[in-house]
Write a structure and sequence with these properties.
Length: about 270
């Protein structure tokens, strides 16, 4: 998040130095809306950890696919965007397909524990899926609320996110009695080149998602995520000698075709 804030600030500064200055709304009634996504993501992250205390990893991954459907539902309810029957079918098939790819064969020991967790785990999983979709839909609403510069909107989003993160670090310091020193002295402890590459990768992903929210929508974002799953599988085959199971091959071969057709169809509809 701090990387995203830094990059967005630099790009905004360059934009301000240009011939035509960017539009930046500074009214409090607009700025006060930007902490809301940070709060939603904060709650969502804590719910995710709580869910993992009740369910196993396979069940957690399968339930995580509910956000594909909940995103479509909230997209329709809150943004009033209509989806065609073909698009709804594609969303449901994507959710079912990704779920199928994560279900292991019943001959494996993990099959016995699948969906055998307490009811609290399933409730939290559903809440997590709804919060993830709500955060995405609300962020899209903010991005398209006015014609402000994308970088100015990013600066506001990431500034409030950084404030919440720092507040949590300060709270942990007080709880621990500052035994390990203030948080800024140990912030980068244990960082390696790999860690920095992961941070840069996630930061770049967040910035690209903001572009999608501004100029496309959450549906395109959902299908972009599914494309990332496809690329991950292909790279795993070449780099790690991964051998896809039958359900994985069927899921992604069908999902890719559905993904390509639906996104192209939707973009045509959107820009009209």
């Amino acid at each position: 998040m701090h990387v995203q804030l830094l990059v967005s600030s630099v790009l905004l500064w360059r934009e301000c130095k240009g011939v035509s200055p960017p539009k930046m709304t500074t009214e409090w009634k607009t700025i006060r809306l930007y902490p809301i996504p940070s709060v939603i993501y904060l709650i969502h992250n804590n719910v995710q950890f709580a869910t993992l205390t009740y369910v196993d990893t396979s069940t957690y991954q399968i339930m995580g696919n509910l956000k594909i459907v909940t995103t479509g539902i909230l997209f329709r309810l809150f943004l009033k965007k209509k989806l065609s029957t073909l698009q709804w079918m594609a969303i449901v098939l994507l959710a079912v397909g990704t779920t199928t790819s994560q279900v292991k064969g019943c001959g494996q020991s993990s099959c016995e524990s699948l969906f055998s967790s307490p009811i609290y785990g399933y409730v939290l999983g559903i809440v997590s899926a709804c919060l993830s979709a709500l955060a995405g839909v609300y962020t899209e609403f903010l991005m398209k609320k006015n014609n402000d510069s994308l970088y100015w909107q990013n600066v506001q989003l990431y500034t409030f996110g950084a404030i919440f993160n720092m507040a949590r670090l300060v709270l942990d310091d007080f709880r621990g009695g500052f035994e390990q020193g203030p948080w800024w002295q140990r912030l980068f402890n244990g960082y390696s080149i790999t860690t920095w590459l992961v941070v840069l990768n996630l930061g770049s992903t967040g910035l690209l998602v903001s572009w999608l929210m501004k100029y496309a929508d959450n549906i395109v974002k959902v299908y972009s995520t599914s494309m990332a799953m496809l690329l991950t599988m292909v790279l795993s085959v070449f780099l790690f000698n991964f051998k896809p199971t039958l359900q994985v091959r069927v899921c992604f071969s069908h999902g890719f075709n559905q993904h390509f057709f639906t996104v192209k169809h939707y973009e045509f509809y959107y820009f009209l």
